[in-house]
Each structure stands twice: as C-alpha cells, then as structure tokens.
Amino acid sequence: MRLRIGTRGSKLALAQAREAARLIETLGFAAEIVVVKTRGDVYAERPVAGLGKGVFVKEIERALLDGKVDLAVHSAKDMPASLPTGLVVAAYPARQDPADCLVTADGRGLDDLPRGAKVGTASPRRAAQLRDLRGDLRVLPLRGNLDTRLEKLHRGEYDALVVAYSGLLRLGLGHLAVEVFDPGEFLPAPGQGALALETRAGDGVGELLRALDHPPTRAEVEAEKSLLRALGGGCGKAIGAYGRFEGGMIRLKGVVYLDGRRFAAEGTGRDPEELGKWVANRILGSIS
C-alpha cells in the first residue's frame, strides 16, 4: 500500500515530509511525497497576519478532502486552532525541541548585540518577548522560508534572527543557534516543534497511522491549541503557550501581549482541552 503525503515545497516542509515518510515506512507502507503550493508560499513576502488563518495548510487540506493525497504533514504550529469538518489529526509523532533560538552572523548572543541591533522575525509573539528582554533592539518584520531568512542575515540586512530551533534541527543546521531560549520563559507558538499527520475522518488511513501517535506530544499540543482557541488567537496575535507532560499531568503556561502589556497564567491538569480553557480564562480575567 502506498500513501500519498501532501506537503508544502520548502526545504523544511520537505524535510518534515521525509521524516513522516520514514515513520510510515516503519509500519510497512510505501510513501510518496506530493507538493502542494499554499497561499503562504505564493505570497511569501507578505506578513502572515494579513493573509488570514491557515495560510500554510488550507490548500493541502483541500487536496486531502478532494482525495488527491492520503494524508497531510504540517508543522502543528501552522495549523488553525480548529480543523475543518471531515479532517482529524491522526498522529502527533514525538515532538522535536519546541524552543525558539537566536541566530547571528558573527556568533554573538542576545546580551552581546549592540544597542539598536536589527533582529528579524515575522512573529508578533517573538517580537513582544524580545522587547521584554532587550527593549533597545530594533525588531523588524521578516518573511520567507528559512533559507531566505538566513540569506538575508548573511547579506547584512539583519544582525540577528529568531527562529524555531526545531526547524534548524530538522535541516541539520542546529549548530547555527547561538542561543536557545528557555521555552518556559520565552514561550513558543502553540504546537511549535511538533508535526501533525492529518487525515480524512473515518477513511481508514488514520487508523493505520495511529501507531505513530506520541501521547505526551498530543497532550501538550492539544492543551496549547485549546488555550489558543479560548483566546481567539491566530498567527496575527502575540500568543505563546508551553505545555509539558510529566507523570500523567500536563503543566501549561500561556502568555498574550495586548497594547504592549503582558498577561500570563499557568496551571496543571489531566484533560488538555479543559486545562487550556482554564489557563486562557485566567489570562482573560487578568485583562479585564
């Protein structure tokens, strides 16, 4: 049996698809990678916040619903908090490191950057947390795939970048990270570092892939996404979440930035959905 994997065509997306293909092959199935161009790829220089929700997944999900692919592989952080009717996440394989990291052309860490240094990121969440650490930095917008961002760094357009550490690791570029931020302090995007294997509900492929699901990763991601839903968030909002599954319990931290102010809360529970709502309600309560 051959399973067709829908994915974006960037180097990182293809690395993630190959990772999923290797896992699928351990189950005794062949895998074929099918590249689907998304809105986020077509408008690669526009801010993600202006393109709407799900800009890196909608076209792949359409191909999945239309039967052109058998499953889709996404970065879990790119997925909207709620899935379209008829689709499910059949498996979250074991999560890669969810942290953000700093990349510089000359190896300097965050504390060593000069005042007014230009730091590139497309994420309002990263920008807000960077300003908490170094309010003197110039945090500038930056879009494009990871290769494009690194090229702009080395051309001198930026002094530093903040990117997902998992992306560097999956491309064999982990050595470029001069500083890896503590995800419990510099909170990642909900789902960051995790892959989501999405399938049609009830067509059998999901059952085949269930053996690849990593329950601790699912618990963490579902708690983080529940918080995101409860806060009404998306790529355009400065929202961070970090869940850790330990000893049968999930510890969840959440943060949101509004009008330059930081609102945070944390909690522990067994039910990911309820925990996410509870932490979100604590945050909302502190805002009002």
Stated plainly, the CATH topology of the largest domain is called D-Maltodextrin-Binding Protein, domain 2
DSSP strand content: 25-35%
Biggest sheet descriptor: 5 strands, mixed
Uncertain runs: 41-53
Number of helices: 9
Compile the SSE list and pairings.
Blueprint: E1 2-7, H1 11-26, E2 30-35, H2 39-42, H3 58-65, E3 71-75, E4 87-91, E5 100-104, E6 118-120, H4 124-133, E7 138-140, H5 146-154, E8 160-164, H6 165-170, E9 179-180, E10 195-200, H7 205-209, H8 215-231, E11 239-246, E12 249-258, E13 261-269, H9 272-287
Parallel strand pairs: 1-2, 1-3, 6-7, 6-8
Antiparallel strand pairs: 3-10, 4-10, 5-8, 5-9, 11-12, 12-13
Primary descriptors:
2 domains, five-stranded mixed beta sheet, 13 strands, 288 residues, alpha/beta, D-Maltodextrin-Binding Protein, domain 2, single chain, 9 helices
Describe the structure.
This protein is of the alpha/beta class and 288 residues long. The protein folds into two domains: 2-96 and 190-287, D-Maltodextrin-Binding Protein, domain 2, CATH 3.40.190.10; 100-180, Periplasmic binding protein-like II (D-Maltodextrin-Binding Protein, domain 2). The protein has helices at 11-26, 39-42, 58-65, 124-133, 146-154, 165-170, 205-209, 215-231, 272-287; strands at residues 2-7, 30-35, 71-75, 87-91, 100-104, 118-120, 138-140, 160-164, 179-180, 195-200, 239-246, 249-258, 261-269. The strands form three sheets. Strands 2-1-3-10-4 form a five-stranded mixed β-sheet, sandwiched between helices. Strands 7-6-8-5-9 form a five-stranded mixed β-sheet, sandwiched between helices. It is globular. Residues 41-53 have low confidence and may be disordered.
